């Protein structure tokens, strides 16, 4: 089950690309992509600035002799960048989920309407309820993810086991991103928060796969931030529909 769900989650990204092209949804990519790039570049700049500032503080604290030739200072920046960028990516993710929540809901609804030939209820009240639901789910996920991330950093101090820390961090981060993308689809089909989480836990392989591909897309400068979000929410919806059809 897990492997099948995971494979479907990976395969859904090429499907999402062709789906967006076929139904001319690239205007959604443009709007989300531009704002995403601004957030992504701002986060990278902030991470570098913070790492440099902390490193300069250590430079002054321990003395100039320790940083002979500036080599250790550069090494210090790199070592500080790793945890800082990790945290930056997490907060970037939840900034995206919070700021783009209304737009992601619209995109998910459009995908579901095309793929399932169903119509969702509309109106200001429905829109507001969906927006508040998304904020609540995202906040809940953020607290849970930060707790699990802290646990992973604790594991990093345990010999032998600590070699799995990067994989654990990637898995945790990917699961919660995928869960958020799936929740927009579940929202369309009327699942409440509890049922949405239960469905995602049952198909955790899909959630993890969706988040892993999104994380790797972010490694592609500019392009990943431009297309990643819309591809991710589209892929999640299409994959979940496929699994639902197989189960019925």
| Gyration radius from CA atoms, angstroms | 20 Å
Number of helices: 9
Distance between the termini: 15 Å
Number of E-type strands = 0
Order of helices and strands: HHHHHHHHH
Regions with little confidence, pLDDT below 50 for 5+ residues: none
**Helix-residue proportion:** over 70%
Can you tell me the number of structural domains?
1
Determine the oligomeric state from the structure. single chain
The shape is globular
Largest sheet: none
Structural class: mainly alpha
Provide structural commentary:
The protein has 248 residues and is mainly α. It has nine helices and no strands. It has helices at residues 2-22, 26-62, 71-99, 101-116, 124-155, 165-188, 193-202, 204-218, 223-247. The model has no long low-confidence stretch (mean pLDDT 81).
Short description:
The protein is mostly helical and 248 residues long. The protein has helices at 2-22, 26-62, 71-99, 101-116, 124-155, 165-188, 193-202, 204-218, 223-247.
């Amino acid at each position: 089950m897990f492997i099948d769900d995971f494979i479907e989650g990976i395969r859904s990204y090429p499907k999402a690309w062709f789906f967006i092209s076929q139904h001319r949804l690239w205007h959604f990519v443009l709007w989300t992509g531009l704002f995403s790039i601004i957030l992504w570049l701002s986060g990278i700049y902030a991470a570098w600035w913070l790492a440099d500032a902390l490193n300069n503080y250590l430079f002054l604290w321990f003395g100039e002799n320790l940083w002979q030739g500036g080599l250790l200072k550069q090494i210090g920046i790199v070592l500080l960048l790793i945890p800082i960028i990790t945290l930056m990516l997490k907060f970037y993710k939840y900034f995206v989920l919070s700021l783009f929540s209304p737009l992601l809901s619209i995109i998910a609804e459009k995908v579901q309407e095309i793929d399932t030939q169903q119509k969702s209820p509309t109106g200001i009240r429905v829109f507001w309820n969906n927006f508040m639901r998304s904020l609540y789910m995202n906040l809940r996920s953020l607290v849970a993810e930060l707790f699990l991330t802290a646990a992973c950093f604790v594991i990093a101090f345990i010999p032998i086991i600590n070699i799995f820390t990067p994989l654990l961090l990637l898995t945790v981060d990917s699961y919660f991103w995928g869960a958020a993308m799936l929740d927009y689809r579940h929202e369309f089909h009327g699942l409440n928060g509890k049922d949405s989480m239960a469905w995602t836990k049952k198909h955790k392989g899909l959630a993890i796969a969706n988040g892993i591909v999104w994380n790797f897309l972010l490694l592609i400068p500019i392009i990943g931030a431009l297309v990643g979000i819309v591809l991710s929410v589209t892929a999640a919806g299409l994959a979940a529909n496929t699994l639902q059809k197989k189960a019925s």
